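Let us practice reading a record.
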Amino acid sequence: MSGLPPREPREIYRVDWLPGTDVLHGTCHCGAEHRAQDPVAMWEWMLGHPEGHQPREDRS
């Protein structure tokens, strides 16, 4: 045991570069996806939650 308190859940953001293009593909912790060429615009979209976000439908 480490004696440390349990960690809080974290929000995870993912940005992938689409090879052969100047396009970034972002996935927010809520499951919403977005494409942009400008990295600043991508992060503004991600961190502007929930504006512009439409989470994916649960397909279970």
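A brief commentary: The longest strand covers residues 14-17.
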